[in-house]
Amino acid sequence: MLEFNLLDHTLFSTRLTRQDITNELGRTLPTEDSCYRIRLLVDPDSNMHIEYIQLTEPEFSYMSLDEVTNTEPIWNVVLDTEPISKDPNDPFIVHKTTKRDVYNNARERTRCDWHATDDQPFDVILWNKDKHVTETSIANIAIRCVEGEKYRWKTPKLECGLLPGVFRAFLLLHNQDLVEDVITVDELKDAQKRGHPIVCFNSVRKLYRVNLLDN
């Protein structure tokens, strides 16, 4: 853990700059104008390795909460059967790394399938020991709540234990009706029961509605 916390100062031989990364992307990616999912790995010697997959335009993804609200859920999700066992402040949760045991184990427990059909779950929703929702195995999450005569969107607070995704930051910056707050497991179930939108989002798929299955 100490090594992880010191990685900016001691684990890399040189500190990569934004220009270093931009130059490597320019050398690696094809020149045609297209969209890619990119994975950038850096070893202790500051050597970069880039993996990429060309993407088609997602058919059911949206850039704004207003757009996604009036759509139908396109994927099924399920709650994990047990809370995350790690400290919510664990750096392997709040930073994106290749160590994904928490997410992979949750998907295995709940039998999630990347090619899910019918009533199969596509993704799993994680929660902590306080029964606070955190995130899914691949995305951040939000629900729309009714407060009096108004609607408000809530996404879990960082203190709950989650990866602060790039698209999550974008949505919080550009949507005054989206706030960071606690979402309990019971609140999530109630949102599904009442037909209130539950959405997931990341930088690849953007915003999409999900349907919470009973388990």
From TrEMBL:
Superkingdom of the source species = Eukaryota
What InterPro entries does UniProt report for this protein, alphabetically? Aminotrans_IV (IPR001544), Aminotransferase-like (IPR036038), BCAT-like_C (IPR043132), Class-IV_PLP-Dep_Aminotrnsfr (IPR050571)
Which Gene Ontology terms describe the biological processes this protein takes part in?
A: carboxylic acid biosynthetic process
**Which portions of this protein are annotated as coiled-coil regions?**
none
Q: Name one GO molecular function term.
A: catalytic activity
Which family does this protein fall into?
Answer: Belongs to the class-IV pyridoxal-phosphate-dependent aminotransferase family.
Q: What is this protein called?
A: Uncharacterized protein
Natural source organism: Rhizopus microsporus
